[in-house]
Structure formats: structure tokens, C-alpha cells
Hints:
Largest sheet: 6 strands, mixed
Strand order of the largest sheet: 9-1-10-3-6-11
Oligomer: single chain
Mean pLDDT: 89
Structural class: alpha+beta
Helix content: 40-55%
Radius of gyration: 22 Å
Shape: elongated
Amino acid sequence: MDVVSDAISAVRAGRPSSNRLRVHGSWSVRLAPYEGAGFHVVLSGACRLVPDGGGDPVPLGTGDVVLLPHGAGHVLADRAAGAAEMRRAVPFEEVRDTDVRLPGSGPGVELLCGKYRLDRSRTHPLLAELPQVVHLPHRVGDHPELRTAVDLLARELDERRPGACLALPSLLDLLLIYMVRAWMSQAETGAWPAVLNDPVATAALRALHSDPAAAWTADRLASEAGVSRATLSRRFTSLVGRPPMAYLTWWRLTLAATRLRDSDVPLATVARETGYGSPYALSHAFSREFGTTPGRYRERVRAGEPALTAS
């Protein structure tokens, strides 16, 4: 696995969901904050997105894609909507999957709006540094994989097509990956685009993510990266924000928490898969990181209680 795939897999819970929004006239729709990530794809027409908290409005046109990776609340509205109209925004749940015709001369717009369920207790720093709103405008030649996914999504929205109920969630999963990739390719700030453009840090991360249960040492990891131990420690720590072996410990425990959440495998199996010699060793490290034992963590998650955040 690579870092981006692992970062998404660790936090993703359940399958994505989506709805269509078709509106004509003068309109505004509110989407409440969500414990996950939201997205919008403009299939036709134009509108704007106004984030909660006074953020700058984001004009959207046909083919544009927006990711709200931290589930921020926001309003979608026609471009002429004023402050009073925005305050009267209709809850999204009241108009989704309907064809709404309202008074006013605003042109029609159609969007695909969706959500990804995420477990934020183990958010990878790569995802944590994404901005509140990632706007990916449609430009010919930009992000070809993302454009292809958007085109395929538009074609699969007709649920009468054979296999559409399976194809759509899979395409939505691809869309998330392509949105994160697109952001990384154009980001002007943030540590992780720089991390993944550094050959030494990338080589070390690839090795750790490919086999987290291996008996890694600082010397072995430096050999994998093709540099001295001191060089690896300096460059990795500067870019990633923690030393290589500390990152490995954090990632192993993140994987352990994911396995406890998503499976019924015995603790001994989880320990073996994450590089701990015994259930006791895993339990000790897990308790230090999460403040509870693996067994109690699993019970808490299964009971629907909020998951604990790693330190």
C-alpha cells in the first residue's frame, strides 16, 4: 500500500452515499456540518458555495468538483442569491433527489452531492492538513483521471442501467482518491505534498507502509532509503514532523485500531499483523496511545460510542 491509500483506508468507514440536487430559479440550500467528508460535482449549470464561518464564496461551474474533507457546514445557492436569501436556505434533506422549481430567473443547475463516512479518531496528518474547502475547477487537460471519474459518474446516475448500484459507490471511492491527488498536485502550502516529493522520505514511508509488521530498525530503514541513518532521521523528521521510528509506532497502532474496529480477529492476530510480539505488548502500547485497552476500545466502537483519539 502507498501512503495516500493507507491514509484514506484507515479513516474510511462504510460506503459513500450520494444524492442529486436539481434546482431552477432563485434558491439556496443548507448542508449541516457532518462527521465525515462531503463533496459536490456540478453536472450542469452554475452556482456558488458559501462556507460557514464567513469564508469566501466559491463560484462553481459545470464540471467543477468540490471536496469538504472536514465536513464543514455550508450553503449552496444560485449566484445572484443575497444575504437574506442565504439566511433562508432550505435544508438539503428537503430537496435532495427532487426537481425543485422556484420563483426567479436563475438558470437551472444539477449537482451530485455526497458524503464519505470517516472515523476521525485516526486521521492521518496527510488528510488532516487538507483545507476546509478544496475547489477543483474544470479545465481542459487538468487532472485527467478526475475528469474521467466525473464523466463516468454522470453516466452511472441512471439507476436503471445494469450494475449501476455497484458501479456508483466504486466510482465515488475513486473520486475521493482523485480529489486528494489533484489537491496534492496543485497545493501551494502543506507539508505532505513536499513529503511525497522527497525521494528519501517517500522511500522510507513506502517501506514502512508496505510491511509495517517487519522488524524495522533505524539502520534497516536508512538502508531501504539509500542514505545514512543520520540523514534519514534529519530529513524525515523535518518533513513528517516526527522521527521515522515514532511514525512507525503511531502507524502500527493506527492499523491495530482499524482492525479492531472492522473485524473480529483475535488480539493475537492483530498483534502479529502490526509488528508486536504478543497481545500483551500490543495492549501496553495501545493503552499508552489511546488511553484504553484494545478490548475496551473494540467494545466502545461496537457500542457506537465516540472513538478515542490517538495522542
